[in-house]
Each structure stands twice: as C-alpha cells, then as structure tokens.
Amino acid sequence: MGTIAHEVVANTLNELHVAIKKCEIDLAEQLLKKAKESLNHMEEDDKVIIYYQLLESRFKMMLFKNKGKGLPPNDWKVKKKELEGHNIDNLIDYYFYLYEAEYMSYTKNYERAISLLKIAEKKLSKIESDIETAEFYMKTASLYVTLHQSAVSLGYINEAINTYSQHEDYKRHLTICYVIKATNYMHLGKFEESEEYFLTAIKTAKELKDEFY
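Given the sequence above, the corresponding structure tokens read:
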C-alpha cells in the first residue's frame, strides 16, 4: 500500500466522530479499525494522529456508557503536553477538555471535572454546531444532577432536549436527557413530573430496540 494523504484519514475520522456521537457502535468500531490501519501508511501529520487518539478515547468511553464495558484505565487519554506545540484547531482543543472532564466525573473527581467543563465551555464558543453544544449541555447536566445541583442541571438539560428533539437520529441522547431531567425532578420532590419523564424515557428507549437501553 502506498502513502495515504492525511486528508483521507481525517475524513474517516470525521465519519468515526459522527458514528460515536450517534452511538452507532458497530459502525464506529469498523471506522476506528480502518483509521488505525490507515495511520500506518499516512503521510506525517501530528494533528490527525491526535484527532485519532482523542476519538479512540471517546470510543472507549462510549463502550463504557452504552455497553457496560469496563471504565478505561487512567492512561487512556491524550495528555495535554502532547497537544502543546501543535497547531490544534478549536474542535480538537475543545474535545480534550470535554473528554477529560467526563473521565474525571466518572472517577468522582468532581471539582476537577467542573474546572475542565468551564474551560471546555469557553472553547465551545468558537464552534458553531448545535449538536456539539447539545452534547456539552447533556454532559454538564449529568455532572450537576450527580451533585444534586438540580437548578443548574435543569438549565443545561432543557437546552439539550430542545436541540435533540429536532434530530430524529439522536434518540439515544434524548433518552439520556429525559432520565437526567426525571432524576432532577425526583431530587426536587416533584414526583409526578419525574414519573412523566421516566416513562417518556422508557418509551423512547423501547423505540431504539436496544437491549442495553
């Protein structure tokens, strides 16, 4: 096999990114394998390599969240020092802080997770994508509901629901959002509203025909 242009690999990674965001696990696994094999024959491009590393990390976290796989080890992430000195565009820079915050949340390092989310939110302002923004809102709401800060969590999750409800292929995310909203209402003692959103989440999950959900 000859040398592969870095633009070709980047396109595969973009497809992988979309598959991960939609939780299309089988497709994401295929694209990750394809991208990994292509890297061995790609012309040198540090940014594409870092993009691959970030998405590989995100894939591992997706398996943990959506298939119950084990939480990735602490060495799974791209380190900040690896980003220094490279011309990293806004999206990749944003992902670093978002994924790091998500991992810190799962390891119960909540103070660090909140600090990283605040940095990610500033990076997000440079990215014009309603789906990226909705994902950030969902992840932030998830952290704050864990901390029983329902007023903050509801503010974020309502924005996420507004966006995801307009996209038919993001029902998995919408299901998660309904659970987060229901849990917030439960914490606030609003049990009728909580039950309403739990039942809506169950109905939406059944439509997915996914045993895990």
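The radius of gyration is 18 Å. Try to locate this feature in the token string yourself.
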